[in-house]
Structure formats: C-alpha cells, structure tokens
Amino acid sequence: MFGTLASGRSTLTHLECSNCGATYPHDRLATTCPACGKVLLARYDLAAAKETMTPAALRERPWNLWRYTEILPVQDVAAAPSLGEGGTPLHEAPALARDFGFDRLLIKDEGLNPTGSFKARGLAMAVARAKELGARTVAIPSAGNAAAAMAAYAARAGLGAVVAMPADTPAVMTAECRAYGATVLLVDGLIDDCGKVVRAGAAAYGWFDASTLREPYRAEGKKTMGLELAEQLGWRLPAVIIYPTGGGTGIVGMWKAFAELEAMGLIGRERPKMVVVQAAGCAPIARAFAAGEDHAERWAGAVTVAPGIRVPAAIADYLILDAVRASGGTALTVTDDDLRQGMVLAAEREGLFVSPESGAAVIAARALRQSGVLRQDDETVVFSTGSGLMHTDLVDGASAAIDPNAPDLAAAIGAALPPR
Ligand SMILES: *Cc1c(COP(=O)(O)O)cnc(C)c1O
Ligand SMILES: [Zn+2]
C-alpha cells in the first residue's frame, strides 16, 4: 500500500553523535555513541526529502505517522509492524481556554494511539528498525507505557520481548505486557534500576536494548508528534508547547522535527516555547533548568503518581535543557494533587480522560497563565501523552447504588443526583 505513494522513500544517510559529532553508518544496530557514550541522532538528506515530501504529496497519504517516510529511518515502511499509530487529533479546548484565560488552547490527544500513549510512536519505529537490522529479541526498561507499546509491536513484528518494570507498576500494565507474550521482569527499584537490568540482560543474552535515547530511532517516532502538529496547524507552529517530561524523547524529538521542517522549507525560523512539566516529587530537569546547569543530577527518592514522569535521571538531559533554553521556554513542577486536578478538569470540561502525566501538563497551562509567564494570546498546545484508562485508581468519588425495585424509584434516583 505505502509503496505506491507519491514516491516517498527514506532519505536516512547516517547517524551522528549529538555530543561529539562522530558519524556512523545506519545499516547496523546502534545504541549510544561508541566514542563518548552519548545520544546518537538519525540524519537525512533533507534536500532530497524536500523534493517529494511536499504539502501536496502529503495530502494524498494516509493520516498516520508513516506519511513522513522521507524523514523516517525505516527503509521498508510496508513491512513495518503497524497498529494504527499516529494521526492523533488536535482538539480545541475552548472551555479550559476560557477557564484559564487563553484565547486559544489546544490538546493533542496522544491517548488514542495503540496501547494508549504516545510511546506507540517511538516503539513502532524502534521495533521496525530493530527488525530490519536483524534483532531477534527487544528489551526495555519502562514505567509501564513504553513496555506495553514495545510488547505490542514486538508481537506484531514476530520478535521476542523482555520488559523490566518497577515492582510497583500498576497490575493492569504488567498484565497487558504478558498478554502480548512479553517476559515481564519486576524490578525492586525505579526505572533507572530497570535500565541496569536490561543492559545486563542485553550483554548476556543478545537482546536489543530499546531504552529511551539509548538507541537512535525511538526519537524518530516521537518526532512525528511535531511533524503532525505543524501540518495540523497549516505548516506553522504554536506559540507554546507544554509537555510532561520524563526521559525527554518527546521534547528532543519534536525539537529535531522542527529543525528538519525548517531545513526543508516547510516552516520558518519561529519556534514554540518548549515547556517541560515535571512532578514536584521527581524534577531533575526542572531543578537543573532553575540552577542554570547543562546537565541534570539524578533525583533521589523519586515519588509521584504519574509513572511516565517518574524518571530520576535522563541520558538526554543536555538535549532537553538545550531545547527548552533555545526556545525561550521554561521548566516547572506541579504537585500530585495538582496533576490529579488537571485530570479532573480535562475530563469534566473537555470530555478527555487523560493520564496523570497529561493532567500535569493541563494544570501547568493554568499555572503559567495565572503567574503571567504565558499571555492570553499565546496559542498554547498541551500534550495529552496518554489515556487515563490505566489510572482509574486516581479518580475520586463513588457511584450511587440504585435498587430497580425500590417502591418509589423516582425518589431513589433523585436522592442519587447531585444537588441542583
Ligand atoms: C513516557 C511518558 C511521558 C514522558 O515522556 P518523555 O518523552 O519520555 O519525556 C509522559 N507521559 C506519558 C503518559 C508517558 O508514558
Ligand atoms: Zn559521541
């Protein structure tokens, strides 16, 4: 199906180290930079990509993330394991805009991706590439969403899957991974401890390690959030992007996407302010941002109900901080009570049942407006990175029991209704 499309072909040329600039071929499995241990990024022939990835050509392609073939690393898109990833809606949020004091507030609803979060984008790409390059088993440390996504795509691609998750990961998430046939390792520790387990297993058993930004292709999948956003706004960018940040592939990927779009002449030099939101109980990037540092120290004793942002240390800390500063953005923290309120507001005011991480981004929009950091006319896009359906334990309140045989059924119902 994709092979017949307006001659979209990957223009991937090589991998480049984001730190020391060393370059490497892309035709073999890669992890971090062999010279310095930092993050490798995929590079493309953007002059060639520009010839075929035009707005007109894109209009003819299916609305999913594979439409940006020219600047994706997968060589044979038709063979990639696909479950319908990407192509998520960009909703107007008029009620929240009014409540918070924005002229326009938008929510990009990543919860509609397969397995319920934007992690599907990165792992569709990483698993497709790993398979193309000969991996047999893929492995990942994850707080839950990345594990589910990797396990699903590994099943789809016919690869083995090993996931290492903190022992306190919600049972619904470990069960989902087992359903896809993954081996689930429960680790007594946090996500960086899970990373240690995966690296040891990869060394001993030949697994391919798909940890955030420890291989170059997950970021390429995540960058499609930025590509879609630009296309959905008619090839321009908003004034502000608010993103709940853990490992940082979302921020790093979108920032890379904008540079590529500019090089291809699809957008200009303008950039949104990139806003990192973290939990008050785990905020290494926000702390480093406030202190003016280039790297973020590990956060000791990380606690938050939002598992996707319970990330005490990020290998791409320097790339996240660069993007936030270069964009004129900021980094802030919200408490768990506040992020739960953000979940309630998105659900009650806009009909969007979002994940706790997304609740953090919603409430951050309000906080930044209240403090005057953002202006009323700052067109702001909040990323809802995942669905709330895995987190029903965070929803308060009780349902009313009704006896259908009550003598006065109307009165029984009336007693259950909220006061008017
Ligand atoms: C992983 C995750 C995040 C953090 O995203 P990064 O790109 O790793 O910073 C945010 N929200 C949800 C729902 C996640 O699963
Ligand atoms: Zn390097």
- The helix-strand sequence is EEEHHEHEHEHEHEHEHEHEHHEHHEH
> Low-confidence stretches at least 5 residues in length (pLDDT < 50)?
1-6
CATH class of the domain at 90-115 and 218-391: Alpha Beta
Considering DSSP H and I runs of 4 or more, what fraction of the residues is helical?
A: 25-40%
Q: Which structural category do the helix and sheet elements fall into?
A: alpha/beta
CA radius of gyration is: 21 Å
CATH architectural type of the domain at 90-115 and 218-391: 3-Layer(aba) Sandwich
Oligomer kind: single chain
* Biggest pleated-sheet summary: 6 strands, mixed
By CATH, the topology of the domain at 90-115 and 218-391 is Rossmann fold
The number of helical runs is 14
Q: What's the total count of β strands?
A: 13
Strand order across the largest sheet: 4-5-13-10-11-12
Listed once per kind, the bound small molecules are: pyridoxal-5'-phosphate, zinc ion
pLDDT averaged over residues: 95
- What is the distance, rounded to the nearest whole angstrom, between the alpha carbons of the first and last residues? 55 Å
Strand coverage percent: 5-15%
Task: Tell me what you see in this structure.
The model is unreliable at 1-6 (pLDDT under 50). The strands form three sheets. Strands 4-5-13-10-11-12 form a six-stranded mixed sheet, sandwiched between helices. Strands 8-7-6-9 form a four-stranded parallel sheet, sandwiched between helices. It has a three-stranded antiparallel sheet with strand order 2-1-3, with no helix packed on it. The N and C termini lie far apart (55 Å). It has a domain at 90-115 and 218-391: Rossmann fold, CATH 3.40.50.1100. It has helices at residues 46-52, 55-59, 94-100, 119-132, 145-157, 171-179, 191-205, 218-232, 249-263, 284-290, 317-326, 336-350, 356-370, 409-416; strands at 12-17, 23-24, 40-44, 90-92, 105-109, 137-141, 160-166, 183-187, 208-209, 240-244, 273-279, 330-334, 380-384. The protein contains 14 helices and 13 strands. The chain has 420 residues and is of the alpha/beta class. A hairpin with a 5-residue loop joins strand 1 (12-17) and strand 2 (23-24). Helix 4 (119-132) crosses helix 8 and helix 5 packs parallel to helix 6. Pyridoxal-5'-phosphate binds next to helix 9.
